[in-house]
Specification:
heterodimer, A: Aldehyde Oxidoreductase, domain 4, Aldehyde Oxidoreductase, domain 3, Aldehyde Oxidoreductase, domain 4, seven-stranded mixed beta sheet, globular, B: alpha+beta, Enolase-like, domain 1, five-stranded antiparallel beta sheet, four-stranded antiparallel beta sheet
């Protein structure tokens, strides 16, 4: 017999603007955490299927080489090896898809296994299937490949030179595309400028390093013609469609499941060759096949992020007003396009106006092929590059004008009443109060006293710097017209006969915590307990088609779809309750586990639900059951914003940087769960500091990957980070009914220029303008020692030695 | 990250372990495994056999031995770092141990294992050099005491013979002396970009003698002897000039994180700061 859902405990109202305030706006611990902390949840690599075998890839040790011959005999002869395949066997499989269409975009064929030529270190050449993982790895080393090495190119500017080796000979050049965004009279703006500030900045290549590397398990049942693929992915539905195209099965025969996914950061917003090969192997061998990349493969063959050379110019009037902006961006595609590779730098162009009033802009982007792994979306995806360019050139502009960098920014903000604000790049910013977040961050950081201490420190040979970064980003991606594969999201809400609620979301959370936030928002709407709401995701057979989790879209688009589906159910519940209570649907309110008529008559939530299923006493024309689906198409992106301020001290002898204080004031619209928002901001800042201070994928001139392990590539670690002071302002978005914006990438976008601004600010007495990321101690030391100015240091006990140190350096 | 095939033996006595080493040329000794296992997972090391010392009792201890402290080779970094005996009477080794890797590494990695590995950027080598420690090795021909200054031959290369196992390290008591270990960490590996171990004896306001071991800077940890002689008799605090000689005559290494030029500069700064801290 069905039992009604228990009544929830009434909660104190907090920030209830996105809902009723019962559960929305509440700091709730994640429902996901207990199973993850206890290690009893299941990632792809945890799957063990009967008869399952393993595969391993033989990968190119060369950045560029002709494949003269491949001999697989030795590998095949190893006991336990089932099969070895090369591109000669996989002609019907693939190619690896690129979803981007642009007028002059060159899309070279991207085979799943190298065909005659390898173009980056780590490119798969052969695949081995064996009874266990150890045999598979041993056999992969026994595949003999005769390579004839060719000259490689890794430098962006060299790649565009006449004499450069060509990554794809048939294309006659390494230029993948050009893209120009131009609006306003740029030439006039620069002509009448009193000052022009220019800076070249390299946004270095990064490795996403999700905790869980990529993993795929595939099983094919020929009788049922059913291919099931478990993959550590952010986009199970899009992957299902692509796998059906890759392996040539009807889409109805393919099911993709994303089990627990140990992080993605954009690197799993993709369709990889291996995601075609592993299912194909399962079909070919008749055995379930598992592939789990190791960390070394993850460094070599999972997409990288960023890697763009930027020349930025800002035209300024005497009073600090911006007259125009220009940028030329050389964006490294790597050797092939992955799913979204050429799209990423276009986001840089779109967001290049930052949060400022800019009358004219010209952004020229050239996509460049090099002998490296593909770049693609990595937390922020094009927006961190834009924000870095803008916030660095604003910093240099303020310095050039002799203005305080915070004041200079404020002067160029649009006013709150100007929103929705149309930018010179053609976007419509939904809502913002840039002045408010800036003021709050300055106050929290004690900005004025930091400035006083800085000046006083310089006299004592202490180099403190203050960094400001005011940012805006583009989230809730996005309207379908502006996205390659649809920008909507699906949500299904089903109230089960017992009153428990199942939510199906097409968004595919992989660490963001939507099992909790979506439960909160549904519970809040239905007046029940979030523990009674179970959020299901990541299984294409269970969940209606959806797009996925990326671009800080899951809550604003996927959450809204669920919200809208919930409204349909509320209306149905009200109709039924009115019938049962002898009232009118419009007079029914829902909350606290019951439905109440204006007359004061009430009925428990569970009784109404049960009545919808038993269907013996329902109004005429009432459709039994309680399930609703909504596909939400957003009318616009959302534009979260905020201000980060940090203070640093630079050790001028060693070049070491100490972050003393880090303040972040972010505005992501209405907040569903402040605890999870804080988590996203914290993690984002950590990742942004990683780029600013430590992380850098280095290929040498021969295209060898120098930073191929975690012993060489420095990711942020807890003990390296300062404590962050977090606060927020709340400016609801008018784009969706909950007024939410998105928060997944904000920290990564804002923090990187904040740190670089602070360090360059600390070293301004030396005349240091810019230091390339990561700000390794050696780079900082070099910037000081090659700087033109020698700061005046007042007499103090330490001064003689410091002055001597400075003299020697100069 | 899957190692190649290997055989595994876990003897319960030192004698059995020595037998295995004598019988198998291509065997490697496994202590804490924090250098060897990562190398094997990258297939940079492919030993045919591992001889695990983990089940041999009596190789993990810290005890007084006359004017020295004796430390068993299988003592973990965490045990060295937290040893009251060491912190009371010979803290330098403990100070170095406390800065090795992270908590997990310190809980597994061992003193003997690290010394036998002779990683050019490991922390212990600087400390045992500055301390003039003794490294005790056993083989079927008996016990051999190797002075630290004669132990390191080069990158991953020591005076240890293939049939020998380190069993103990002896460090002098340094009561009344100033010691410190200053380290500039690599942000990824945690190894020393520069690591400087200092031991100074003061006489009034002057340096009577100084011993300085430096790691991370060259293919092999070294004693900065040229600088040590310049420090003799110098007033406390006047270290800057002497520290300029911290890498005199040394072939300084460079890598993608820190060039040779930068390391050569950095070692003078870290050495000066270490001397100042030790002499305080």
């Amino acid at each position: 017999m069905a039992t009604p859902a228990k009544s929830p405990t009434p909660q104190k109202k907090t920030n209830g603007k996105a809902g009723n305030g019962t559960w929305v706006g509440k700091r709730m611990k994640r429902k996901e955490d207990p199973r993850m902390i206890r290690g009893i949840s299941h990632y792809t690599d945890d799957l063990k299927l009967a008869g399952m075998v393993h595969c391993a890839f033989t990968r190119s040790p060369h950045a560029h080489a002709e494949i003269k011959a491949i001999r697989t005999d030795a590998a095949k002869a190893l006991p336990g090896v089932i099969a070895v395949y090369t591109s000669a066997d996989t002609t019907g499989l693939g190619p690896v898809p690129c979803a981007i269409q642009m007028p002059d975009l060159k899309v070279p064929r991207h085979p799943v296994l190298a065909e005659g030529r390898v173009r980056y270190v780590g490119e798969p050449v052969a695949v081995v299937v064996a009874e266990d993982l150890y045999i598979a790895r041993d056999a992969a080393e026994l595949v003999e490949v005769d390579y004839e090495p060719l000259p490689a190119v890794t430098d962006l500017e060299k790649a565009l030179g006449k004499d450069s080796p060509l990554v794809h000979e048939q294309l006659k050049s390494n230029q993948a595309f050009t893209h120009q965004l131009k609006n306003g009279d740029v030439e006039a703006g620069f002509k009448k400028a009193d000052r022009i500030v220019k800076q070249r900045m390299m946004n270095q290549r990064l490795a996403p390093i999700a905790m869980e590397p990529r993993a795929v398990v595939a099983e094919y049942l020929p009788g049922e013609n059913r291919l099931t693929v478990w993959s550590s992915t952010q986009i199970p539905h899009l992957l299902k469609t692509q796998i059906s195209l890759l392996v040539g099965l009807p889409e109805t025969a393919v099911r993709v499941i994303a089990p627990e996914v140990g992080g993605g950061f954009g690197s799993k917003l993709n369709v990889y060759g291996e995601e075609g090969v592993v299912p194909w192997l399962a079909m070919k061998t008749g055995r379930p096949v598992k592939w789990n990349e190791g960390r070394r493969e993850n460094f070599m063959a999972t997409i990288h992020g960023r890697d763009a050379l930027n020349d930025v110019e800002l035209a300024l009037k005497k009073d600090g007003t911006i007259l125009g902006m220009r940028a030329r961006v050389l964006a490294d595609m790597g050797a092939y396009h992955q799913l979204l590779t050429p799209l990423i730098p276009q986001l840089t162009a779109l967001m290049h106006a930052g949060c400022y009033k800019i009358p004219a802009i010209q952004i020229d982007i050239i996509g460049v092929f090099t002998n490296k792994m593909s770049t693609d979306a990595y937390r922020g995806a094009g927006r961190p590059e834009a924000t870095f360019n803008v916030e660095r050139i604003m910093e240099l502009g303020a310095r050039e004008m002799g203005m305080d960098p915070a004041e200079f920014r404020r002067k160029n903000f649009p006013l709150p009443k100007e929103f929705p604000y149309t930018t010179v790049t053609g976007l419509t910013y939904d809502s913002a109060k840039y002045q408010e977040s800036l003021a709050k961050a300055l106050k929290l950081s004690g900005y004025d006293s930091l400035r006083r201490r800085q000046k006083e420190g310089w006299k004592r040979g202490k180099y403190y710097g203050v960094g400001v970064s005011t940012y805006v980003e583009i989230c809730a991606i996005g309207p379908s017209a502006a996205t390659p594969a649809g920008g909507w999201e699906s949500g299904t809400v089903r109230i089960e006969p017992t009153g428990k609620v199942t939510v199906l979301t097409g968004a595919s959370p992989h660490g963001q915590g939507e099992e909790t936030t979506f439960a909160q928002l549904v519970a809040d709407q239905l007046g029940i307990d979030p523990q009674d709401v179970n959020v299901v995701h990541g299984d294409t057979l269970a969940v209606p088609y959806g797009i996925g989790t990326f671009g800080s879209r899951a809550t604003a688009v996927g959450g809204t779809a669920i919200y809208m589906a919930t409204q349909k159910l509320k209306s149905k519940l009200a109709t039924l309750a009115a019938h049962l209570l002898g009232s009118k649907p419009a007079d029914i309110s829902i909350g606290r586990g019951q439905l109440t008529a204006k007359s004061g008559k009430r009925i428990p939530f569970g009784e109404v639900v049960l009545a919808a299923y038993t269907a013996r006493n329902i109004p005429v024309g009432f459709e039994p059951g309680l399930e609703a689906t909504h596909f939400f198409e957003p009318s616009n992106f959302t534009f979260p914003f905020g201000c980060h301020v940090c203070s640093v001290e630079v050790d001028i002898e060693t070049g070491e940087i100490k972050i003393e204080k880090y303040v972040a004031v972010d505005d992501c619209g209405n907040v569903i769960n402040p605890l999870l928002v804080a988590g996203q901001i914290q993690g984002g800042i950590a990742q942004g500091l990683g780029q600013a201070l430590w992380e850098e994928v280095v290929y040498n001139d021969d295209g060898q990957l120098v930073t191929g392990t975690l012993m060489d590539y420095a990711i942020p670690k807890a003990h390296l980070l300062p404590e962050f002071t977090l606060d927020h302002t709340v400016t609801p978005s008018p784009v969706n009914p909950m007024g939410v914006k998105g928060v997944g990438e904000a920290g990564t976008i804002a923090s990187t220029p904040c740190i670089v601004n602070a360090v360059c600010d600390a070293l301004s007495p030396f005349g240091v303008r810019h230091i390339e990321m990561p700000l390794k101690p050696e780079r900082v030391w070099n910037a000081i020692r090659t700087a033109k100015a020698i700061p005046a240091i007042a007499a103090s006990a330490e001064a003689p030695r410091k002055r001597e140190a400075v003299r020697r350096r100069a | 990250m899957i190692p190649a095939n290997f055989n595994y033996e876990s003897p319960s006595t030192l004698n059995e372990a020595l037998n295995l080493l004598s019988a198998h040329d291509d065997a490697k000794v496994l202590a804490g495994g924090h250098s060897l296992l990562p190398a094997m997972k990258l297939r940079l090391a492919q030993p045919a056999m591992l001889v695990d010392l983990g089940r041999i009792s009596g190789l993990s201890y810290i005890r007084e031995a006359a004017d020295k402290i004796a430390i068993g080779a299988m003592t973990t970094h965490a045990e060295v770092a937290g040893s009251k005996d060491l912190l009371d009477s010979s803290p330098l080794l403990a100070l170095a141990a406390a800065q090795i890797g992270d908590t997990q590494v310190r809980n597994r990695g061992t003193l003997g294992g690290s010394l036998a590995q002779a990683h050019p950027a490991a922390d212990y080598p600087a400390a045992v050099l500055a301390l003039d420690a003794e490294i005790v090795a056993h083989s079927h021909s008996g016990e051999r005491v190797i002075p630290a200054t004669k132990f390191f031959n080069g990158m991953f290369s020591t005076a240890l013979r293939n049939d020998e196992i380190i069993t103990e390290v002896r460090v002098p008591k340094t009561r009344g002396e100033g010691v410190t270990y200053k380290k500039f960490h690599h942000p990824a590996s945690g190894y020393a970009v520069v690591g400087v171990a200092v031991r100074v004896k003061k006489s009034g306001n002057k340096i009577e003698s100084a011993a300085v071991g430096i790691t991370g800077v060259s293919e092999i940890a070294y004693r900065a002897s040229a600088m040590e002689s310049k420090l003799r008799g110098k007033p406390i605090g006047a270290f800057a000039d002497a520290a300029e000689h911290a890498a005199d005559g040394i072939d300084v290494i460079g890598d993608v994180y820190a060039s040779a030029e930068y390391r050569r500069h950095l070692v003078t700064v870290i050495t000066r700061r270490a001397l100042e801290a030790a002499a305080k």
